[in-house]
């Protein structure tokens, strides 16, 4: 039997913080996308869908906060339990796939700028976004079948896996999702960013502004990779070990250790809903100023902040975010 007393404090607190911070940042981002951006590009489209995915997930977190604060007692329906778990995995893999789309788009813009003019068009981005949603929803629909609740004494448990008799099938399903929706996208992202970094770090002749923009682009690559690794990699590693160790004859100390690691990395994976907005701020330097001044925003303040209303992500009219040949 696992010692899980720690999670009744850890999970409500972390999920509560993610809910408040994530909801604020993503609603602010959605407002910016919908009302402040007049002309969209491919990156804007992917980021908008990423913000929608994060928002749908964080609005479900109050149910989990209440559930864990009450000591694993689920007072709601079985259907609501299934939906909450489904939203977690849908957001998880939507985030990964949209980060993949953003990475490929940036890769084309930096390494193949001419091709990016065609494949980086917003028309293609909308089609790809629809495909991402369809693929994710279809791939995660088995969660609605596997997830269930069980009654133990006076409490009802909302499982994040499945019942005991279906656990073996659930592990197989999760392993397939691990390879298709995490390992392969992660590998592609690493390859894209390595090639982008090599291109950006190549010595070129130009003014100092180009040098500064290259440094900013490399820094952005590093931040995206760090966020990806911190949020998603630990969760998938510990979940794989957790599922595997449950079927092995191991000591209670070992099982408790891996259970602790899994329970810690699970809310860590949820923090992507708070960290994804970093992408929006990095995409346009003035987007951060927009966020900071949102509560006192006035239409006439746009020019005071140097924002071009028709530019993607509220970027300023000086082009210091990416090198000229890297733009798309």
Descriptive overview:
It comes from Patagioenas fasciata monilis. One of its GO terms (cellular component) is plasma membrane. Belongs to the G-protein coupled receptor 1 family. The chain is mostly helical and 328 residues long. It has one domain: Rhodopsin 7-helix transmembrane proteins (Rhopdopsin 7-helix transmembrane proteins). 72% of the residues lie in helices and 2% in strands. The chain has 14 helices and two strands. It has helices spanning 7-36, 42-58, 61-69, 78-111, 113-119, 122-146, 167-200, 208-231, 233-245, 252-270, 272-275, 277-283, 285-292, 301-304; strands at 149-152, 155-158. A two-stranded antiparallel ribbon has the order 1-2. Strand 1 and strand 2 form a beta hairpin. Helix 1 runs antiparallel to helix 2 (42-58), helix 7 (167-200) runs antiparallel to helix 8 and helix 7 (167-200) packs antiparallel against helix 9 (233-245). The radius of gyration is 22 Å and the shape is globular. The termini are far apart. The model is unreliable at 295-328 (pLDDT under 50).
